[in-house]
Design goal:
Number of strands: 0
Radius of gyration: 13 Å
Low-confidence stretches: none
Mean pLDDT: 95
Shape: globular
Distance between the termini: 15 Å
Oligomer: single chain
Length: about 120
């Protein structure tokens, strides 16, 4: 579980560094060791959901668009935020169309990185 969460977090940080316009907030690129426990649990859970989705799809997720892949990660992440935070900020649980482009691209990158690792 720890490795899954770490892989997810590192993919997130890589995506933020690649897609965020300007200098990202420190919380966006906090290393795994300094990540709060609830975020570690969430990262591992979302990694597992993507991994399981790819497996039960027998690899056909390669036919999904980047947007579809990113939407899946975003939806899984939103569910985890609701699980761990009673009244999350609206920006934490924003629907796909309301996410900034950098976050959409980062979520798609995360899916593809997990997909390629299977």
């Amino acid at each position: 579980m720890t490795d899954d969460g770490r892989i997810f977090r590192e993919a997130w940080i890589d995506g933020v560094k690649k897609h965020f316009p300007g200098e990202p907030k420190p919380g966006h690129i906090t290393p795994w060791e300094d990540t709060p426990e609830w975020e570690r649990q969430s990262a591992a859970a979302v990694f597992g959901q993507v991994r399981d989705f790819v497996k039960v799809s027998n690899g056909t997720t390669a036919h999904l668009t980047r947007e579809q892949k990113g939407r899946f990660v975003a939806l899984c992440r939103i569910a985890q935020i609701h699980k761990h935070i009673e009244n999350p900020k609206p920006s934490y649980v924003a629907d796909w169309d309301d996410l900034p482009t950098w976050q959409q691209e980062t979520d798609a990158d995360i899916f593809e990185q997990i997909e390629q690792s299977i």
